[in-house]
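Below is how a single chain appears once it has passed through the pipeline. First comes the sequence as given, then the structure the pipeline wrote out for it. We keep one example in the README because the format questions we get most often are answered faster by looking than by reading.
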Amino acid sequence: MVIRGETNLIKVYDLTPIVDIESYDLSETKDIERFQEVVASYIDSGEAEAVDLPTELMGVLPDGAEIEIEDKTYTFEDIEYKNTSVDELISENFNEGDVLLLLQANGDGYFEYDENPDINELKIGYTACDIDAPQEPIYDFFCDLMLPDMVLKGEEKLEIKASNFYPKDTMVGEVYIVREDGGKYLEKIAEIDMLHFGWDLFEDLIQVDYDDPIA
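Resulting structure:
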């Protein structure tokens, strides 16, 4: 079985232990620039990852995506979903005031599995978001995605045998703080210049290629 389609990658680094957010006045341009430089240095040195292993999310956009089983091609409308609440993930993993670095990438994804199950036996994870979520663009990036590393045949999880990611754009780095107002949510506080960072930041998650996607 093969799943292919437009894919979003996200890595979430918890910077809370190494960033004293109270020491910056983020309404001041100079402090924002100083904060951006400090965060970039933590990425460059590997300290951001050394503090705690990042939370990772890899999702395929349903529109235009394909599931190929032997000689037949299906869409995500042909498969049952297993909802994963993004709001619950934030609430369960992070506390109010936590400072998070989110690295984001968009491209074409290819995911291959050993088995070729009956389409009617399959379920796939799906990132569901609360309709009342704040209007931060990041929610558009990781909501309503199919999760290729959460494919089930009955109760059995299918493992990815091979995968490739073909970047469409440069990666994006943004820093958020966890707020709470009737529920936890993310508020963006800064953008990080990622132009001089390499795609090796994602290669523990998926093989990154620069050739044309597999047809």
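Helices lie at 29-45, 47-51, 86-93, 137-142.

See the next section for the split statistics.
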